[in-house]
């Protein structure tokens, strides 16, 4: 069964399904959807939680073994499965189909992955999850709906602002909901609850970190290697979370891979950018970046993101910031 993100809370209030599958490129919505499900599960008595990262070396037998294992502490258990690539492979497909056909009692399975393409949504494992549980596709908020989303988010934090102030935030974050949520939290910390002025919002936005993640992405796409190096050092020095930098770079690379692949298959650049939902004010910078490498090489750069993710989690050797530096320079057009 498929439901929208906006329907999730209402659904959870009526009880839990045995399986939830969350897919999309919006980390804020993904995080909040997963948090809502886990909160509902805790209220229902699920006290244990096991987390699995299904990378290329993952043993899918572990999932069923853990699902069927007796617990010494709690009868109810959450199985939190992450599939970063969105591709479980043959073994994963078989394991997920088996799980759906023989759902273990006293377990709640939550699966999270990035955005799936049309072919993946029709795959056997996704169909099995759809039939056995609940599927939530987390769509980006469209440009025209973003000010309304920001307004609702601000009201949920007991603050309000004029339309002009809300538009300032919308222009700043360019569709990034996580960044919008962070700007709103900063406003709450600075000014507390109540009504804000345009000047207050403008000052808060202007005071954002000098070396910001969005500027880093643009510098990489523009091929400005020196700026990438300087901003990467600044972000690390200022204590910005490496996972946030990786998310921003990986999201842009995924978009480029999609556009480059569609162009290789004969779709015009403009149509490919539209299909990838690239905002109009970013079409030129993304379109120029696509031409730096052939699709295969962009896909190889995207694969580096999985290794960096594992490094950040302590599951792969090396220094995460060093690898992020190499990734940013590669995006800028310099092979490492």
Strand neighbour order, sheet with most strands: 1-6-2-5-4-3
Q: Sketch the major β-sheet.
A: 6 strands, parallel
Q: Estimate nothing, just give the exact number of structural domains.
A: 3
How would the global form be characterised? Answer: globular
Spans of at least 5 consecutive residues with low confidence: none
General description of the model:
The chain is α/β, with parallel strands linked by helices. The chain folds into 3 domains: 2-138, Rossmann fold, CATH 3.40.50.300; 143-206, Helicase, Ruva Protein, domain 3 (Orthogonal Bundle), CATH 1.10.8.60; 213-331, Zinc Finger, Delta Prime, domain 3. It is built from 17 helices and 8 strands. A 6-stranded parallel sheet has the order 1-6-2-5-4-3, with helices on both faces. Strand 3, helix 3 and strand 4 (77-83) form a beta-alpha-beta unit. Helix 4 runs parallel beside helix 6 (124-132), helix 9 (177-191) crosses helix 10 (198-206) and helix 13 crosses helix 15 (283-290). The radius of gyration is 21 Å and the shape is globular. It starts with a strand and ends in a 5-residue tail after the last helix. The model has no long low-confidence stretch (mean pLDDT 88).
Record keyword descriptors for this entry.
single chain, 336 residues, alpha/beta, Rossmann fold, Helicase, Ruva Protein, domain 3, Zinc Finger, Delta Prime, domain 3, 3 domains, six-stranded parallel β-sheet, two-stranded parallel ribbon, 17 helices, globular
């Amino acid at each position: 069964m498929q439901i929208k993100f906006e329907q999730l809370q209402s659904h959870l209030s009526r009880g839990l399904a045995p399986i939830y599958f969350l897919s999309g490129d919006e980390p804020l919505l993904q995080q909040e959807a997963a948090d809502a499900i886990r909160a509902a599960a805790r209220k229902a008595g699920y006290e244990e939680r096991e987390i699995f990262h299904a990378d290329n070396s993952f043993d899918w037998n572990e999932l069923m073994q853990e699902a069927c294992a007796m617990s010494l502490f709690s009868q109810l258990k959450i199985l939190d499965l992450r599939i970063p690539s969105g591709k479980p492979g043959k073994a994963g497909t078989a394991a997920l189909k088996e799980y759906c056909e023989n759902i273990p009692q006293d377990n709640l399975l939550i699966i999270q992955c990035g955005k799936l393409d049309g072919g993946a949504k029709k795959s056997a494992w996704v169909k099995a999850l759809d039939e056995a549980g609940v599927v939530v596709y987390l769509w980006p908020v469209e440009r025209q709906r973003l000010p309304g989303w920001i307004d609702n988010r601000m009201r949920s934090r007991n603050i309000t602002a004029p339309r002009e102030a809300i538009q300032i935030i919308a222009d700043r974050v360019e569709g990034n909901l996580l960044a919008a949520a962070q700007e709103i939290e900063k406003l709450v910390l600075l000014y507390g609850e109540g009504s804000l002025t345009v000047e207050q919002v403008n000052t808060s936005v202007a005071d954002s970190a000098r070396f910001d993640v969005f500027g880093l992405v643009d510098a990489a796409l523009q091929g400005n290697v020196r700026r990438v190096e300087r901003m990467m050092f600044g972000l690390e020095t200022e204590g910005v979370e490496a996972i946030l930098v990786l998310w921003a770079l990986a999201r842009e690379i995924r978009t480029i891979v999609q556009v480059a692949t569609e162009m290789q298959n004969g779709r015009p650049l403009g149509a490919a950018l539209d299909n990838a939902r690239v905002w109009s004010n970013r079409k030129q910078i993304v379109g120029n970046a696509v031409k730096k490498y052939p699709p295969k090489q962009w896909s190889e750069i995207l694969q580096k993101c999985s290794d960096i993710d594992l490094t950040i989690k302590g599951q792969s050797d090396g220094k995460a910031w060093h690898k992020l530096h190499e990734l940013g320079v590669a995006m800028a057009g310099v092979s490492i």
